[in-house]
Amino acid sequence: MLRFQHISHLFALALIPALVGIFVWLIYWRRQKIKKLGDEGLVNQQVMGLIPGRITLKFILTSLALTIIIIGWANLQMGSKADKIQRKGIDVVVALDVSKSMLAQDIQPDRLTRAKQLVMRMMDKMQNDRVALVVFAGRAYLQVPLTVDYSAMKMMLQNVSPDMVPTQGTVISDAIDLSMQSFSQKERKYKSLIIISDGEDHDANAISKIKEAAEQGVITHTVGIGSPQGATLYDPETKSVKLDESGNPVVSKLNEEELKNLAAAGKGTYTLLRNADDAATKLTDAMDTMEQRNMGSILFTDYTSYFQYFLLTGFLLLLIEWLISGAKRKTRTA
């Protein structure tokens, strides 16, 4: 089993295409400058030791070295010791509200950022549970299907924003429907739904949907984000406080009653998010008390790292590039 220990470091590979683009532009710019001096072939003849393609070769070696070094930085690993153990866990779907009201700053830095921090802390405490991510506003979308790859889940979570859902609002019932479809349909237990929202827009169908989910063995927990006093919202179009039709500031408030009613109907708990660690512990403890499914499989407990080979190869390529001398202009002799 292969894995990257620090998979987020691979984002640095985006620098390579940017460097290629800059290099191509510089080659084009150089040729345009030479053409202004005269015939390109004659001008190049005046450059001592010029070998066609040498500059390109040096750039290819440098780019290849950087690519390999970045891969080494992410630390490719292979499982070296496999233990077959009996794993027990449940399926957890996290339904995250990404409506624009989640950008309110009544909790710092804003509601959505704190919500994502909570999910991160939860996954740090989870071991064998499968987890999925559903984002919702006016509509719901499945972002990550049920998986035990918490690293991939965290990476996807970092990119979550209100722009992902063009239709605004807070339609929790749509999120519940999609979450139910994301669960395994073969079992009627071992399932938990966690709804993280400010509950601002009342959804009349949400309670009945939660009760239907409870009848199918799904325990629903809710997490409230924000404050009852609320906060004004920023309007990016006007670059000021968002106003309603009457010209008054729009204030987004946490609707705790709605979220508490959902948790009660779903036979779960309601948590007001103040401290991410405390909230994550409360939720994972509640899920640990549930009946859990046997999920026996092979887990790799020890990994062998191969970053040193990538780093060595990368530095050797840089050394070779450095040893390839550059061209010099010819000088006249007396």
Describe this structure in words.
The model is unreliable at 327-334 (pLDDT under 50). α7 links the parallel β8 and β9. A 6-stranded mixed sheet has the order 7-6-5-8-9-14, sandwiched between helices. Strands 1-3-16 form a 3-stranded antiparallel sheet. It folds into 2 domains: 2-81 and 302-329, no CATH class; 87-294, 3-Layer(aba) Sandwich (Rossmann fold). It has 10 helices and 17 strands. It starts with a strand and ends in a 5-residue tail after the last strand. It is α/β, with parallel strands linked by helices and 334 residues long. α3 (54-74) runs antiparallel to α10 and α6 packs parallel to α7. It has helices at 15-37, 40-45, 54-74, 111-125, 150-158, 172-182, 206-215, 256-265, 276-288, 307-323; strands at 2-4, 47-48, 76-85, 88-89, 91-97, 130-136, 140-147, 191-197, 218-224, 231-232, 234-235, 240-241, 251-252, 270-272, 293-294, 297-305, 328-329.
CATH topology of the largest domain: Rossmann fold
Any guess at the CATH architecture of the largest domain?
A: 3-Layer(aba) Sandwich
Q: What does the average pLDDT come to? A: 85
Beta-strand share of residues? 15-25%
Extended strand count: 17
What is the makeup of the main sheet? 6 strands, mixed
By CATH, the superfamily of the largest domain comes out as von Willebrand factor, type A domain
Terminal CA distance reads 68 Å
* Gyration radius, in Å: 28 Å
The protein's oligomeric status is: single chain
Order of helices and strands: EHHEHEEEHEEHHEHEEEEEHEHEEHE
Number of helices: 10
Q: How many domain units?
A: 2
